[in-house]
Amino acid sequence: MDEKTAGENRMLQLEELEEFRGNTYENHKLYKEKMKKWHDKRIRNRDLKIGQKVLLFNSRLRLFPGKLKSRWTGPYQIINDAGNGAFEIQRSEHGRSFKVNGHRLKLYNDETFDEIEETIPLSDWEAIQ
After folding, report:
1. 97-101 and 53-57 strand pairing
2. Mind listing the pLDDT tens digit for each residue in 34-76?
3. How far apart are CA 108 and CA 75, in angstroms?
4. What pLDDT shows up at residue 19?
5. How far is Cα 50 from Cα 97, in angstroms, rounded to an integer?
6. Within 10 A of 70 (CB to CB), how many other CB atoms are there?
7. How far is CA 15 from CA 8, 26, 118, 123, in A?
8. Are 78 and 54 contacting, i.e. CB atoms less than 8 angstroms apart?
9. For residue 9, what is the DSSP state?
10. Do 82 and 105 meet the contact criterion of CB atoms below 8 Å apart?
């Protein structure tokens, strides 16, 4: 019930609280640095160049997406690097062009494979089974 002792105790509690807040701030700062390193390590650089063919991710396909429907459309051709990760693309040589974020693009692989057709006579098919 001594007012002086109670005041001193209160001041000690406030100092401990301030020290705890300082430690929490430092731990949060270290955590943010660690997460930034982890995130930056996993960023893939996009080496897209003018003239390359790319596919565009259609993020607005939400109404009736369908399980097997692809969200990638294209191919488009890169006609200009707009800077800061943005690219200007167009569908064909005479189509309209528009700018998109580079994270929504991926390279289009337009390799064609010659399909080999193999025929098996029905009499051989029954022998296989």
Report:
1. unpaired
2. 999 999 888 777 788 899 999 999 877 566 666 777 788 888 9
3. 7
4. 95
5. 13
6. 10
7. 11, 17, 84, 92
8. yes
9. H
10. no
